[in-house]
Amino acid sequence: MAEREKVLEIRDLSISFRTEGAKVNAIRGVDLDLYRGETIAIVGESGSGKSVTTKAIMGILAKNGTIDSGTINYTWTDPDGSKHTKDIVKMTEKEIQSEIRGRKIAMVFQDPLTSLNPTMTIGKQVMEPMMYHYGTSKEEAYKKAVELLSEVGITDPEARMKNYPHQLSGGMRQRVVIAIALSCDPYLLICDEPTTALDVTIQAKILELIRDLQKKKDLSVIYITHDLGVVAKVADYVNVMYAGKIIEKGTIDEIFYDPRHPYTWGLLSAMPDLDTDDDELYTIPGSPPNLTKKVQGDAFAPRNAYALNIDLRLEPPMFDVPGSSSHKVASWLMDPRAPKVEMPESLRNRIQKMVKEGVAK
Amino acid sequence: MIDQTKPILEVKDLKQYFPISRKFTVKAVDGISFDIMPGETYGLVGESGSGKSTTGRAIIRLYEPTAGKIIFEGQDISGKMSNEAIKTLRTKMAMIFQDPMACLNPRKKVLDIVAQGLDIHHSYDSIEERNEKVYKMLETVGLSREHANRYPNQFSGGQRQRIGIARALIMNPDLVIADEAISALDVSIQAQVVNLMKKMQKETGAAYLFIAHDLSMVKYISNRIGVLHLGHLVEAGTSEEIFNNPLHPYTKSLLSAIPHPNPRVEKTRKSYTYDYKTSGLNYEEGTPHKVSETHYVLGTDADFERFMAEAGKGF
Amino acid sequence: MDNTKFLPDDFELVGDKQNINIDEVLPSRPMWQDILGRFKENKGAVIGVILIIIITLLAIIVPLVSRWNYAEMNTSIANRVPSGEHWFGTDYLGRDLWVRTWQGTRYSLIIAVVAVIIDIVVGMTYGLVSGYFGGMVDAIMQRIQEIINSIPTLVVLIILLTVMKPSLKTVIIALIFTEWIPMSRITRAQVLKVKEEEYVLAARTLGAGNIFILFKEILPNIFGQLIIMSMMTIPNAIFYEAYLAFIGLGLTKPLASLGTLINDGFRLFQVYPHAMLIPAAVMAILMLSFNLFGDGLRDALDPTMKEG
């Protein structure tokens, strides 16, 4: 592999929120690495902290949220070839606004209807960030906007420039949102559940679009999603999050074909594929934990059918999976002293079948 | 009590229009027919705006159907209903809603939310009997009686959806309409709710009308599936027929869009595109064509020949 | 990690021993505690409530226990400045202003209560019916309301003046005529929003009647909003009475309201400013307190203001 250029490095990030009555520890020591041109996915249930992490990267945490510790180092190369690294945590709001947000890191949100301004034409909304961040002239911005719109697959872009968001369909709107995100040539694109609000037929198209644009522009992309189908389609690396911690990370193949954490097993099995005809779907019992309470031991232990005594007492560290430099699991089951536990039978069968299908292609 | 050989619900040429202005009318549902047998699960799939939710709501009479007939347990529940028909409809048909946050009244205790059907139809003799019924129902959906005195905001999304199921099932309905009941939930919780729905079906023998856009879940839970597009039922059949032998191009595009949790396949796969405007099809002119005893596809004679040819069957 | 002490049974599987199917419910405080907590956090609102309580108590107690009577004239002590004997001084007819001020506050508070009752009885009912039934009913009710609203208040007052004598009744009728309209609008808007919520639809699918849906499903969910709204109209009503008093439509002498006191004091303002400043100050404090209270109530009750 050619030398990978690190774009983003998060170390030991902890974030908490104040609400009436209690402090919520939403993120508890997250490490994350992202390289140029690669895609990572952060997978987890709602409340697992996946959105909070990316909001911290963008500097748009809610007012009652504070970063308790950690660094978010962002590295970029200027057009003259010089390299810079800055810790976003230490930047002021003003610096983030003028340097990072929208310019170097752009974001695509879940609901295209609420992330577009209903009273402004599409064209204006695509042109504005360029004019704001780079002082591009109106004529040039217009030309570039038309170009961007056709790049994201909007037919007859010149006519669409004059449309208002409500005149477009949901899929079209999301394409416009992507065009706006790309208007300032960001290095990093964060997609927060970009397809959840869209129909299945359009979902696939949007994901394919982002994938193509990423290749063309050499972008790094972070996907936040709970949909493993989306992950399978787009990601190079996967981070599984649970209760504010990353509990398993690895390459897409490692996570899908060799999952080690019982939670990942649950996530993979909970989604029926088209051949599932078991009487009952395998599920993770119970509900996600409440983070206002201090977590004693492993946060997943109360829902874990494979819990060990130590899980109730001590939080597991990140274990390296033998034979891999990228696959890491936070579970005491990985400790050499732990009893050997195999993944559920049905999941193993399914993975075997998936591997076969993969080879056949 | 119920004749097992006769459909529990028959929908005949149902139309539901919404007048927007004097000149413009939205034809949300434009002449669809299907039936549901006792104890079976009928899946209704389609994109947003296809009319699938409208169909469900028209059947349970949240709307006034524009035209067509709805026969439920032998009684006509379209148009003006007799008192007896209203009683049957309101006690024997129930609905599970989409949004776990919005489907429970935030100012009511879980006990009163679940007991609502009992309260409205006065189907108990004493408060103890009512509460006991609610407790039992809560336990069946995996909650405990301690939860009864809490308010909805104290529950997670999956738990709220289970409360919604308890509310729908407490009257022992024969038909349950599940309108995108799992779409707003996390994947792991979706499986919990689907398992619960299947378990309840086994115990009560209720039929389900399962409305969703997630095809893998629909395939898993349904016996038969109807595919809706732009207010028309473009294809209907058993789930095997729909998934193994899709004929209509819209069905094909829906199937090809299902994400597979298999990266090696998914990475290179391109989804199939279908656009009604450029497809040359006209749903208004189409009629249901029989493929097999249970499998129907909408189209003109010429369309049908083409579909069959493309499926590699021909005549 | 090296100094972690491991116990001998640390690596025993216990997953099958614990009951993983038990549902933990998020512990959270009951709603009213939440509301109270949020309300208490708002300093202004708490001060507002305390002031309202103090003013109300004074308005009730002072006229009962004072040795002066609010109507008792004694021209020999006219226009006294505040002193140990007459805490707020006396007016141009020698009436004790301490008693008159609190007597006047009584009437202002009565008007406030009446305003709230009108709001709820007339405004809320009108809005509920109009919003819930919609269609033709709504269209007709909205047109009626628009017509009433388009008549200028001053015209209404002048007509009232020709047929009625200035009295508390006149003030109340004037209030009835105009006060309910904003309330009915707010109620209607809220009903329109809530009636399409899934829990209302759920009640309908279970066969609930209109009365059940209106009072059990819709009203409890918008009542907080409506209470806030009516709290906000109190300062308006108090001010409205003062305005009526000023143009001669208020209470008849010797009855006093804060409005008439200010009106009386106004005539000698340049010589004896206290006669106007004191009731004006009481009225200002009262209106401010109700505003603060209403604000605090809104923040406490309105869940949309709550973050996260």
TrEMBL record, chain B:
This is Oligopeptide transport system ATP-binding protein. GO terms for molecular function: ATP binding; ATP hydrolysis activity. Residues 9-255 form the ABC transporter domain. GO terms for biological process: peptide transport; transmembrane transport. It comes from Sharpea azabuensis. Belongs to the ABC transporter superfamily. InterPro entries: AAA+_ATPase, ABC_transp_ATP-bind, ABC_transporter-like_ATP-bd, ABC_transporter-like_CS, Oligopep_ABC_C, P-loop_NTPase. Keywords: ATP-binding, Nucleotide-binding, Transport. Pfam families: ABC_tran, oligo_HPY. It comes from the Bacteria.
UniProtKB/TrEMBL annotation, chain C:
PANTHER family: OLIGOPEPTIDE TRANSPORT SYSTEM PERMEASE PROTEIN AMID, OLIGOPEPTIDE TRANSPORT SYSTEM PERMEASE PROTEIN APPC. Keywords: Cell membrane, Membrane, Peptide transport, Protein transport, Transmembrane, Transmembrane helix, Transport. It is found in: Cell membrane. The keyword Amino-acid biosynthesis does not apply. It comes from the Bacteria. This is Oligopeptide transport system permease protein. Belongs to the binding-protein-dependent transport system permease family. OppBC subfamily. It comes from Sharpea azabuensis. One of its GO terms (cellular component) is plasma membrane. The chain crosses the membrane at residues 45-65, 107-133, 227-251, 271-293. Its main location: membrane. It holds the Pfam family OppC_N. One of its GO terms (biological process) is peptide transport. The keyword Protein transport applies. It is a multi-pass membrane protein. Residues 105-294 form the ABC transmembrane type-1 domain. PROSITE patterns: ABC_TM1.
